[in-house]
Each structure stands twice: as structure tokens, then as C-alpha cells.
Amino acid sequence: MDDDDPLEVLPHARPVVRMSWFRRMPIEVKGGRARAAGPGKLGTRLPFYYGWIILGCLCCVGFARQGSAVATLSIFVEPLTRDFGWTRTALSGAVSLGGLLAALVAPLIGPLLDRRGSRLVLCVAVMVNGAALLLLALTPSLLVFYLLFCIARMNWAGPFDLGIYAALNNWFVARRARAASIATLAQMAGLAAMPLLAQFTIMHAGWRAGWLALGVATLVIGFVPSWLFLVRRPEDIGLAPDRARRAGEPPDTAPDLAEARFSRGQALRTPAFWLLVLYTVLVYPVQAGVSLHQAPHLIERGIDPATAAMIVSVFSLMSGASTVICGLIPRRVPIAVPLACTGTLLAGGTLLMSRIATAAGGYLAASLFGLGIGGVLTLLPIAWADYFGRANYGAIRGIALPAQVLAQASGPLLAAALRDATGSYTAALYGFAALSAASIVAALAARKPHREG
Length: 453
Prior knowledge:
Blueprint: E1 16-19, E2 26-30, E3 33-36, H1 37-45, H2 51-65, H3 70-84, H4 88-116, H5 119-136, H6 142-171, H7 176-205, H8 207-229, H9 264-268, H10 271-300, H11 305-328, H12 336-353, H13 359-388, H14 393-422, H15 426-445
Antiparallel strand pairs: 1-2, 2-3
């Protein structure tokens, strides 16, 4: 029996209890079906839907994920370049290489998530990231920095992204937008807190202590809830998406949901798949390029480092506000419309950022840009699930995710190369504004597909 598959049919029907090697909790086998005795019984006895427990676990993981975000790395750019003499292009290369590695592993992780669920993937990702961040405190050379940060960045761009939203989309359908906004809000809270934690620690104990603080925070916040409570799908413990089981309802009965159900091959044959990929390719260089370089850009424009860190956090807080707004958008509104609005916000934010002269201008540009990024991070996973369904979400998203991580990898490198060549970030910001404007067209062209047959 697969220990992590609670619905595998067994060749006998005699009730037994087994211990899962990874769950460390009893697996009750009854009537030819295996169920997780811990979460299963908890899910049916709670006065509220167990999916909210799942969402809480995903919020913890999403918060912890941000220790290796580019916005957090941006706090380390100045002390690392000062101590080691590395160029900003060299530092950006670690982000790009980590993205390339994520592009290679994402297609393999997607089908695994569909079969086994997010628990194993997310627990391993948290442990590996925590260890990598702790070891970064011992960095003696650029080679070691690349080795450790590339591993952490690969997890950030691949397993974390797929695992969080695969679990969320399995447990929520009608309430998907609200759940996605809460999960993304938790990630934005982490994106606001982790740079501040790093900056505070660097100011008082140096950049090596900053990495230690991030590693400890990642392990403490991210691992335990996921290890204890994550379950693959509501059907695995006798529930249905979006709600608790009603009294007297058969355990595996799901409500009548108007849900898309595409196979990976069917999805690849739709224009909507490729238009969503195009939108992704246009917006994610902007997201990663500005996120990594915004702190050094602000300092070069005359903003002091402490104020620059606060502006980075305001960008993150506004991203969080945007996720709340996205959760309130009525489900009847075609998701292409808010996606186009996010492209508009990104274009305006990057143009303003290129002209920053005061701290007030920095706060305004970061606020607009943060609103756009929050929309992208919240709406794109919803679009993939709404357009193609949850049954094969991991496999479909795993094919598209390499385009996202490669786009993310190109943004920081492009910005750094243009800055080193021209002496400022102005040219890069103009280019990012143009990409954002093009994303508006791609979003409006992407329409919900109809399945063959």
C-alpha cells in the first residue's frame, strides 16, 4: 500500500490499523478503503470545514517561503557586494540559475502532486530551504553562495508554488478566490516581514546573522503544521470541496460543481493555455527584476538604507492589500479583466519608479507596483484552476511553470546587466513598463476554454 494515498483500494475488507511511515499517525483501513485516522476523524468532528485548517497550513508555508524571495535577497545585495566585491550581475545570476533548476524539476513534480498530494513536497521544500538559509551564514565564496541560494531559489520557484496552490485548488472551488487571496496575503506578510527581519538582524549583528535568522524562521513557521495536518483532497477524508459534510450525507458525495476537467493533452491544445503562458512570460520578469533591485535602486536615488527597507515592506504590504481586493471580486467577472488591470498597475508603477527623487515618490511607486504584483500572484493560480480544473492541475501547471520561472530568472539578470552597462536602472525600468503594457493585451485575449467532446 502507498502510505500517502489514503484512498487506495485494498484486496481485503477486514478492518485493520496501520502506521504510515511519513504521516506518523494511524491509517484506518475499513471496507476496502484506507483513511487517515487523525485528520479524517478531526475533519468530520470539527464544527467548521477542515479545508480552513488546510488553508492555515498553506499560509504558514507561504509565509516561511519568503526567506528566499528576491525581495529578501535585495537586503543582502549591498553588504555582500561590499564585503566580497561581487558585482550585482553575479548576485542576480544566482536567482536566474535557481529559476532554471526549478524549470527542470517542475514538470516532474506536477504529476506527483496529483497522485500523492502536497504534504510530502511542501515538508521537504521547507526543510531544504531552512537548511540552505542557515548554511548561507557560512558563505566563504561566490561558488558556495550559488550552490546554497540556487537550491533555496529552486524550491521557492518550483515545489512551493506548485504545492501551495495544488492543495488550495483541491480543497476550494466555489470559494477559490477567497481562499487564494488569504493564502497569497500570508505570502505577502512573509514578504513584508522577512526583509525587515533580515535588515534588523544585519544592522545589529551582520549579514551572516541575517541568514541564520531567516533559516530559523523558515523551519519554525513552515514545517510543523504541514507535517501534522495536510491532506491531499477533501474526498480522502469523506468531505467535499468548500464545505463540511452535512449530517446523513454519504462520505464521498460531492456537491454539483460546474468544474472544468481537462487532461494535460487537452489543455495544451487550447489557445487559452498559451495565452496564459504568454501573460506569465510578460509579467514575471517585471516582478522578479524590480523585486530584487528595488532596494539598491532606491539607495542609488538618494534614499537611505533604512527608508529603502521600509519602502520594500510597503510594496509587500500593498501586495497584500491587492490580494484582499482580488478575493472580493465576484466570480461572475471574467478573470481576464482583473488580470489586465494588474498589467496596468505594473506599467504605471515601474514608470514612476524610474523617476523617484524623494522617499514619498518611492512609497507611491512601490504602492502601485505592489498592487499589481499582488494581483498577479493571486489571480494567475485561480485562472489556471478555473480554466482547466483541479483533477490534473499539477500536471498542467507543471508544464506551464517552467515558463514562469525562466521569466523570473531573466528579469533580475536583465536589470543587473543594464544597470552595469548604463550606470542606472532607468533603461531596465522602461523595458519592464513595456512588458507590462503588452501583458494587458495577452490577458484580454485569454478566454475560458471549452473541453473537447
